[in-house]
Specification:
This protein is of the alpha/beta class and 197 residues long. 42% of the residues lie in helices and 20% in strands. The protein is built from 5 helices and 5 strands. Helix 1 packs across helix 2.
Amino acid sequence: MGKFEADRFNGFIKSGLVKGLYEDLRKCLLHNERDVHAVAYGYIRKFLGRKGRDRLIVRCDATLKGPGSQRPRPDLVVFNQRKPIYAVEFKVFPKIVGVNRAAVEKAVEKDVRKLEVLGRRHGLSYGFLVVVYDSENELYLPDRVLRKRDIKRVSVIEINMRFDVKTFRQRRNYEVWRKQFDAIWEAQRNGGLERCA
């Protein structure tokens, strides 16, 4: 079994996982948070399996021990045998973020706090929050802002479907994608299923 390298896993979450999720979103294969959980599980499992780390287990909605009735359930947890070492939360906002920006930022803040508490209580190596949204403005909660707030082992990773948060360039064929995504999302809400062209 290969030795687990935390830096390599962190890099995969911030780069490889994000790239895979973005591509699946662009192909209209994912439409909600549950879809993203399932696909992320597969990508993480594949990454760990490729590196020969059979003692690492990935679980969706794993219930962690907590005081009293507080038993947190992160979206994904990576365990080293029985010890949780990573937690990943997802927030997916399928509609364009505009007037409800404050509500979106409040939801993101709530999950950052959840990951921070999990890190302290369970000794996690790291917590990741992956936020998928569509907005003219980025949510922008970078690591340096979290560090100033003394949140050291949590990262917020943004996937803005409208523009690349690194280059600030609008995504190619954004308008076409948005129209297709909305049509499919509505059809699924009404019991139908379609696919992007």
